[in-house]
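Why do we care about 3D structure at all? Because function follows from shape, and shape follows, mostly, from sequence. That is the central idea of this module. The next example makes it concrete: a single protein chain, its amino acid sequence, and then its structure expressed as tokens.
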Amino acid sequence: MIHLKVADMLNHSKPDIKRPRIAIAGATGRVGANLTALLAADPIDLVALTRDSSAARLPEGMVTFKVDFKRAETLEQALRGIDRLFVAHGTSLDQVPNEIALIDAAVASGVRHVVKLSAFGPATRLLPLAWHMQIEAHLALQPIASTVLRPTTFSHVLKRLGPQIAAGSWAGAAGDGRVNFIDIRDVAEVARIALLEKIEPTSQRAYHLSGPRAWTMNQVAEELARLLGHPVTYVDRSPAEQRGALGAGLSPLVADLLVGLDQMFRESVIAETTSTVEELTGRAPRSLTEWLTENLDVFRAAPA
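And the structure:
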């Protein structure tokens, strides 16, 4: 992995002859929305690719193109004249074919650099990591510069546990495994740098992104208890017990994703702490404690 100082990444002293034209696929997603807000202040032309332009929540004045992933001509038309492309497709059964179609359209349209949001983790059969591996392998074969962002688990995943934590406990199958949580805003800041950095036409980079430390679920519970001022406990289940509990109210795909996430937590395969965020942005990544403090209302019981 390549680590460069932020001054080396942003080539402000030697601007391009024309304003860079950057397209964001996934501009209304969690990382994409934060990235779009950051880029809106930069001297670039910004374009959002969306499947439903009427529903897009985008900065005022941002150009949008409605695309159909099953029609390559709509993708190529939207990418005509684009210099750099950010790809962040939501996790779904269509993720692999849609992202591959977008990458192929980028190559056909003359895009010079693709930045893909991927995920941190080992070679695995577990979803969505297995999907990201397929897409990364396809991207690596293309005659185009590429940067892959591999963040650890987003702190945001804890939000779905809000009502359970407010009631005093939550359950899972993570055991005593450790996981490194990263703030979505840190991922967006690195994505901005990756899109604006000066790179060679054949460059292939990967940035492994993490927060400042790893946590067990019991440590997360202790931190929540400290911040909330009441006991919070983590109840450990077997993987089979957790699958049975999730199957009661979730689709099979979502249940598989959550059980797989617990497996990665249990095996501590996304516990690594890297220095990449600090080296690229010039500051330490936001801590889980910071994120919990900012979002503490999510974990509080509603007033009676």
